[in-house]
Structures are given as C-alpha cells and as structure tokens.
Amino acid sequence: MFCEYDLHSHSTASDGTLSPGDLVNRAANAGVRVLALTDHDTTAGIEEALSAASSCGLVLIPGVEISVTWNKHTVHIIGLNVDHDNRTLQLGLRELRRFRDWRAKEIAERLEKAGIAGAYEGALAHSNGTLVSRTHFARYLVEQGLASDERRVFKHYLVKGKPGFVPGQWAELAQAVEWIHDAGGVSVVAHPARYKMTRSKLRRLFNEFAELGGEAIEVVSGSHSRDDYFTMAKHAGDFGLQASAGSDFHSPDNPWIEFGQLPLLPDNCRPIWSDWMIETATSNIRKAV
Ligand code: AMP
Ligand code: MN
Ligand code: MN
Ligand code: MN
Prior knowledge:
By secondary structure, the chain is α/β, with parallel strands linked by helices. It has helices at residues 20-29, 46-56, 87-113, 119-126, 134-143, 150-158, 173-182, 199-211, 226-238; strands at residues 5-6, 34-37, 59-70, 73-80, 186-189, 216-221, 242-246.
C-alpha cells in the first residue's frame, strides 16, 4: 500500500530529466492518482503536464517549489494548487530566476579558477536553456569525469566551503507564502528533515511559517527516513499544520526515489488534500492495511 498522492516532483522545466509529459505518464503508470508538478522557481512545465494528465486520467496539481533564504538557511517552500497565470507569483519567480542566471555565471567563474573550464556552457547544455540549477552543474562535472555521481559533485564542489559555492539571497519566507496565497494556493515546507538545523531552530521555522498563514509541512518525503516521518508528523500537530507527501522525483536514474512507492502518512496527520474536491471514490488512500 502506498500513498496515491505525490505532491512534489520535477521536470525538465527545472532540474528533472523527464519532460512534463513523460513525467506525468511515468507517475500514472506507477499508480499515482494525484501528482503535483513542483519545479524550482518556475511553472513553465504546467501546461504540458496538464494536457498529458487529461489524456491519462491522472489529476495534475499545478505547483512550484520556491527557493527561500531564512536565517541564512536555504529552505524550499512548495505552492500547491496555484494559479500559474497569477502576476504576483510570476513576478516573484522571475526575480528568482534572474538571481539563478547571475549565480550560474558566478559558479562557473569560481569553478574556472579551480581549474574546471566551460562549466557555464556545460551546465546550460544539461538544462532546457531557461533555468540553470546546481544539479545541471553536477551533471556536467560527472560527465567530465570529475566525480562518479551528482552527490559527490555537491559534496566536493557545490556546497559551502567548496570551490563552486556561491552564497546568495533567495526570496523571504513571508514573500513565498504571500505569492502562493496570492495565486490561490496552499504552502508547504518541503523536506524539513533535510535542513541542517537544530530542533529548536526548525521549530522556529515552523512557528514563523504557521504565523504567516502557512498550511502544511512535508511529512513523507523521498528524502526522509521512517523516523523523520514520525518526527515531522509530531511537529505538524504541535503547530496546527497539515501534512503533505511527495517523492521529490527528479529522474529515473535515481532508483531510490521512484513513483508509486511513497508510504502513507502517519495516522495522526491531517492530509493537506483532505478538503480537496478530488474524485477518489475507488482510492485506497489512508485505509487501514
Ligand atoms: P539549486 O536550487 O540550483 O541550488 O539546486 C538545488 C537542487 O540540487 C536540489 O533541488 C536537489 O535537486 C539538488 N541537490 C542538492 N543537494 C544535493 C546533493 N547533496 N546531492 C544531489 N543533489 C542535490
Ligand atoms: Mn532539485
Ligand atoms: Mn527541495
Ligand atoms: Mn524538489
């Protein structure tokens, strides 16, 4: 039994390797009934995903994963059920992509000083040409034989203290929540267990997020352990937040995060989809095993 809602995924519109259409088909074939496309700082893949979803009977939730800087930590805030034509949201995302463009060139310059040439063009070639992520640099460096996998590139080149690291300022937490709400969506703190924060700092984040009107935290995530599910479920309850679930699928090359394998939310959670008007009459979601 797995969770038929998967509310976190990436396509080639950001740092995924499948087109929005292929992503939707893969999810549907794996038994996902409700999928959110949540590319980093863009909604460019939503139209294609919606049309693929209508052909295969999957419910596609228009979403986005917004990059935020909170107390010097990069935090990701997901918007679900957003109107992707909303002007406030689009203006905000455009600023983030401008920062990404500048940062990509800066990363490449720093890598060049460390003896790695052509990284900007290399990363760009792995992207769809409109949004460059550190993941695209990682793929280029793997291709160049500088590391055996993307994780190792991050560890040795792209994180704080390493040659290709560029510090920067993303959106503020309040802005991300505001843009999502302005676009009629609900906001979710993505993969909270992944942030390198103390428990008390993480609780400060949840508290601030709840005070801003944030709705949910991702309790079940492809990047959480089983223990994390229960820890995050408890935090959600403590702050009156709902719970979300998402694989954070990026690529079929990442065998540990596949569609159709997300566990159910722990029983004490209030699922973010509980008041969504979705036809799930035949669904097994959250029925006891
Ligand atoms: P960016 O938003 O461009 O800074 O890139 C962040 C993305 O890089 C995340 O969404 C992940 O997809 C990927 N990422 C971050 N850390 C790692 C890591 N340690 N190993 C592999 N991918 C990572
Ligand atoms: Mn990513
Ligand atoms: Mn993320
Ligand atoms: Mn993600």
